[in-house]
Amino acid sequence: KNEVEQSPQNLTAQEGEFITINCSYSVGISALHWLQQHPGGGIVSLFMLSSGKKKHGRLIATINIQEKHSSLHITASHPRDSAVYICAVRRNTGNQFYFGTGTSLTVIP
Amino acid sequence: NAGVTQTPKFRVLKTGQSMTLLCAQDMNHEYMYWYRQDPGMGLRLIHYSVGEGTTAKGEVPDGYNVSRLKKQNFLLGLESAAPSQTSVYFCASGTREYQPQHFGDGTRLSIL
Do B45 and A97 count as a contact with CB atoms less than 8 A apart? Predict the structure, then answer.
């Protein structure tokens, strides 16, 4: 049983395409994070959301608390966006932080 | 801007050997975490610390020990390495409990 599910697992896109990565979770949460893991292995926090929408450059993250769902969008994708994108949630009861297994994105020039 | 620094980056051990992974952060964060990342699984919490001198068990603590003698350092020890501990280990730090914000680059550990 995985408290955080991501889709798709793997995604290949042409440069310039609009990309959507989905995250669904099964527990009540106080915050949701989107992380980026580059091929070299390092992990960078992109967004922390508790409601609504956040935008940073070409990245947009949205969350629907009622539906327990979040999306990460990348506009005008570029090969440097190729990475694994990880969704993680902080549960609102108890002391737990759950990570999804990640979506591997490859953007082809 | 160092952030979170992990050493070493790679290590190969034989079964039964011991070693210590070092994590150092320069952001004065109270909270520090050790995770392991295995293929097909999300990151899993091994141990964490809510401040200097404190440690607590996470989801998968067996076979590991930790220490936080100084606020900026969080050490992860393997007393007797087993092949099941082959993994990529990440250290993280943050300002809120159970919310890692900054991650190190990882340590790739292979146990033969």
Answer: yes
Does any CB of chain A come closer than 8 Å to the CB of residue B94?
A: no
Residue-wise pLDDT for B65-102, tens only, equals 999 999 999 999 999 999 999 999 999 999 988 788 89
Nearest CA to B74 among B100, B94, B92, B97? B92
Residue of B nearest to A30 (CA): B99
Distance CA A105, CA A108 (A): 10
CB contact under 8 A, A4 and B42: yes
Contacts of A100 in chain B (CB under 8 A): 42
Provide the pLDDT for residue A40: 77
Residues of chain A with pLDDT under 50: none
- State the count of interchain CB pairs (< 8 A) between A and B: 47
H or E element, residue B86: none
Q: Which two structure tokens, joined as six digits, stand for A108?
A: 């082809």
**Cα distances (angstroms) measured from residue B6 to each of A68, B18, B75, B93:** 34, 17, 10, 12
Report CB contact under 8 Å: B42, A101. yes
What pLDDT sits at residue A2? Answer: 81
At CA A101, angle to CA B19 and CA A4, rounded to 5?
120
| Two tokens, residue B77 | 């020890």
- In sequence order, what are the beta bridge partners of A105? A11, A83
